[in-house]
Amino acid sequence: MSTQTKYNSNILGYKAVCLAFLLCVCVTELCAQSTGSSLSDKAIDGGIGLGSIIAIVASWSRNKSVLYAILHGFLGWAYVIYFVLTREE
Predict the structure, then answer these.
(1) Do residues 59 and 69 make contact, with C-beta atoms less than 8 angstroms apart?
(2) Which of 24, 28, 51, 86 is the most exposed place for a label (fewest CB within 10 A)?
(3) Other Cβ atoms within 10 Å of 42 Cβ, number
(4) What is the distance between the alpha carbons of residues 52 and 73, in angstroms, rounded to a whole number?
């Protein structure tokens, strides 16, 4: 694989991760039912927690798929445990 192809592949990967992150933030902002005024208060009350973030990052590192990352983000800690038990060294 040429250097240019690797560079383009990395750029597409970063764009997909950024898109997934922005999608999670937007969905959290729209769906949060909090009376708090800050985004972090709404995110915590809306269900985006540490388990979801770890699941999204782990899913992206294994699958490189935005759809899987979103799905695994909803599964949260369940996917994190599955990832730890099934990862290859």
Answers:
(1) yes
(2) 86
(3) 20
(4) 4
Place of tokens 């999670």: 24
Residue among 15, 23, 29 at smallest CA distance from 73: 23
Instruction: For residues 41 and 54, give the distance between their C-alpha atoms in angstroms, rounded to a whole number.
Output: 19
* Residue 78 reports pLDDT greater than 80: yes
**Assigned token pair, 43:** 């995110």
Helix residue ranges per DSSP H, the chain: 3-31, 39-46, 50-63, 66-75, 77-86
Please compute Rg for the chain using Cα positions: 15
* Separation of alpha carbons 44 and 49, rounded Å: 6
Confidence grade of residue 49 (pLDDT, cut at 50, 70, 90):
confident
**Model confidence pTM above 0.85:** no
Look at residues 45, 46, 47, 67 and name the one whose alpha carbon lies nearest to residue 56. Answer: 67
